[in-house]
Design brief:
The chain is of the alpha+beta class and about 120 residues long. The chain is built from four helices and three strands.
């Protein structure tokens, strides 16, 4: 990404957190955290990575709700960030949070097993 695309991505991340948390009233959208935003170099497309607390069904409902509110979110972004063309939005799950949690639980499991071996 170019330097400008990075700045736009960071600003979008900040604004998206506020828009999703305060402006959208869809009951399907649960507790959402915008973890990252990637904007193409030409500022035409933006991929928004989100993490959602809850079950898989709640995550799917949240993604469906965000996709339906995509037009509203894009309009809000366009009003808040002055760009000639507001990027097309694409929402995706951020699997790195779940991956990190899984690694952490495995490390704790190994540590507990080591402690048990030392006690014997």
């Amino acid at each position: 990404m170019t330097m400008r695309a990075n700045r736009v991505a960071e600003q979008m991340k900040k604004e998206l957190g506020e828009i999703i948390g305060q402006k959208i009233k869809d009951p399907r959208i649960g507790f959402v955290t915008v973890t990252d935003v990637e904007v193409t170099g030409d500022l035409q497309h933006a991929t928004i990575y989100i993490s959602v607390l809850g079950k898989d069904s709640e995550k799917k409902d949240t993604l469906r709700g965000l996709n339906q509110a995509k037009g509203y979110i894009r309009t809000e972004i366009g009003q808040r960030i002055r760009l000639r063309i507001t990027p097309e939005l694409k929402f995706e799950y951020d699997t790195s949070v779940a991956y990190g949690t899984r690694i952490e639980s495995l490390l704790k499991q190994v540590k507990n097993e080591d402690n048990e071996v030392e006690k014997e």
